[in-house]
Here is the input.
Amino acid sequence: MFYERKRPQRGDTVFRAATLGAAAFLLVIMAAIAAFLIAKALPAIRSDSVNFLTSSRWNPDDDPSTWGIAALAVGTLISSVLGLAIGVPIAIGVALFISHYAPRRVARGFGYLVDLLAAVPSVVYGLWALVYLVPNMRDVSKWLHDYLGFIPIFGSDGLYGKSLLVAGVVLAVMILPIVAAISREVFLQTPQETIEGAYALGATRWEMIRICVLSHGKSGVVSAIVLGFGRALGETIAVALVLPASNVITFSILKPEGNSIAANIANVYGDAGEIGRGALIASGLVLFAMTLAVNLIARGVVARGGNLRRKAAA
Amino acid sequence: MKLNRFATTACLIAAGAIALSACGSDNNPTSAGSDSTVTSSSGASSSDSTGVTTAAGDPTGSTTSSGTGITCATGTLQLSGSTAQTNAMSEWIKNYQTACPGATINYGGGGSGQGVQNFQDGTVDFAGSDFPLADGDEHDKANQRCAPGTAVDLPMVPGPIAIGYNLPGVKDLNLSASTLAGIFSGKITAWNDDAIKKDNPNVDLPSTKIQTFHRSDGSGTSYNFSNYLANEAKSDWSYGANKAWPAPGGVGEKGTAGIAQGVKSTPGGIGYMELSYATQNSISYAKVGNAGGDFVELTTDNVVKFLSTATVVGQGDDLALKFDYTNTDADAYPNLLVTYEIVCTGGKSSELARDFLSYIVSDEAQNLLPDLGYVKLPSNIQTKVQDTIKGLG
Here is the structure.
C-alpha cells in the first residue's frame, strides 16, 4: 500500500486541536479536583490534635479535634483483601469454565449471567448481606472460631454478627463479575497453536490450562485483580451496612470490630461540621493514595514477570 | 438459527431462574433465623408507617379544634435539619396544610449539621436541630443571616431515650448510670456481671455476652445519652459527651432503626434508641438510674417531670436548655433529648413561619407528640417558647 502524504488540511488542524483540548480539559479538571480536596483537607489535618495517620479515634468536630485514619485504613485493607481471597479463586474458576470447559452455548448464557451480577446496585448486595448474611454467618463464624480459633484472625470474644468476614463475603460477590469477565476475555486469547502444541505433547486438559492458558493470561488476571481490588477498596454502601463501624484496629475477622474509609464517609458525612468534612476528605485522599499504591505495585509485579519471562526465553 | 440460539438462551435463563427459586424456597423454612430478621425489619418499617397513619386518623379532630390556633398564612416554607423530629414535623405539616390549602411546607431532614448549614446559608426558613447553636463561629454566622435580628434556639420536640435490651426471659431490668457506663465502655462484658446483679438482686441473669450497639452516624441521641453518662456516672465514664459516639468498641449502626434492628436480632444486645423504635419493635427497655440512686421507669409523665426542671441557658430570646442531672426525684426520667427549631428574630421570619411555629407549640400540636413516640413540652417551657414566637414578628 502507498499513502500519498497530503498537506495538513483544516479538518486535520481542527480535529487535532479538539483532541488536545479534551486532553488538556481532563488535566485541568483533575488538577482542580486535587487542589480542592487538598485545600479542604489541610485545615482539618492542621487542627488535628493527634497524628492523623496513627490515631483510631474519629471526633474531628471536637475541641480539641481528635481524629485519625489508622483503624479505617486497616479495616479497608483487611476487608478488601478478604474479598479478593474469597472472590478471586471462584472468579478464575468461572472464567476457565466459560472459556475452556463449557459447551459454547452454555458458556454464552453463563457469561451473560456473570455480567448480570455486575449490574446489581451495590445497595442491594448490602441489604441482602444485612438481612440474610449477618444472621446466617453467625454459625459459620462460630464454627471457624471453635475449630480454627488458635489462628489470631479467627479470634473472638463469643460475640458474632457484623464483622470484617461478612464484609469480605459481600465484597467477594461484588468483585466476582469484574474479575471473571476480564479473566475470561484474557483466557480466550490464548494462542490456539500453543494449546494444540500442548495437546500434541500429550498434556491433559488441566496441564494444558496450567501451561498455556494460565501462564499466558497471568498479567491480564493481575490487572483484573487490581480492578477488583480497587472496587473493593472504594465500595461504600454495602460495606457501611455490614461493617460494625467501631473504630478499633482489629486483626480478627470474626469480632464485631472494624470500619472502612468509604463506609465511614457514608456514615458520618450528614452531621459533620466544617472540620469534620475536611477530615473526611483527607481520609478520601488516603484511600486514593492506597489505591494508587496498589496499582503501582501490581503494575510492577506484572512488568517484572514479563521481564523474567523474556530473560528466560533469551 | 438465530431463533434457535435465542431459544437456548431463554431456556438457560429459565433453568437458572428455576434453580435459583428452588434454592430460595429450600432456604426459607430451614433458616428460621433469617426469616425472623426479615419480618422484624419489615415490621419495623410497617409499624413506622402505621405510627404515622394512626395519627393521621386524627387530623379531622385536631384540625377542627386547632382551627382557632391557625390563622392560615399562605406561601412556601422550606425547612431542613434534625431527623429525630421528622415524624413530628411531617404530622404537623400535614395538619397545617390540611387546614390551610394556601400553604406549602417542606421539611427536608438531612441531619442537624445540614440544617444549621442550610440555615446559615439562608436556603431554609428555619432549621430543626438536636443541639442549640454552638457559641462562637456557628452562632455568629447564624446571627449574620438573621441581621438585624438574631438566631435563637426554641426547644420544640422532646424525646425520651430508651435503653433497649434483648435478654429472653428478662422482663424487668434496672441499670444504674455507672453500670451503663461500664457496659458501654466495654468494662462489663457479660450479663451476669456483679454490677448488673447488684442493680437487679431479684432477677435471674444469664451469662450471655453483652453486645452494645451505638450510632455510626452523628446524632443528638448519641450526644444526649453520653451526656447523661458523663453527668450521672462521672467516675466511670471518661469519654465525655459527643454526637459522634465517643467510646471504643461495640457495633455501630446507621440510624435508630439500625440500632433497633441490631438489638432485636442479637441475644445479649443492648442499645440506646428513641422510645418509638423500642415500642414498635417490642424491645424491652430498662429502668435507668438517676442521681438519687433510684431506678426510674420511662413514662411520658416521668420524662416531662425531669424536663420541667431544665434551666434556660440561652441569652435573650434564645431558649437553649440545660438539663438538671442532679435531680433526685424518683419519678423523673433523666435520659432524654430535646430538639430545637433555629429561627430568626427581628421580623426576619416570614408570616407563614411564625404562624406555623405558633401552631406547633400550641396544645393541639404538642398533644399529638406522645402518640408519635415523643413527649410534649412541660408547660413552663411551652409558655416561654410561645412568648418568644409572639415576639418574632
User: Anything to note?
Assistant: The mean pLDDT of chain A is 88. The beta strands of chain A are 58-59, 66-67. The longest strand of chain A covers residues 58-59.
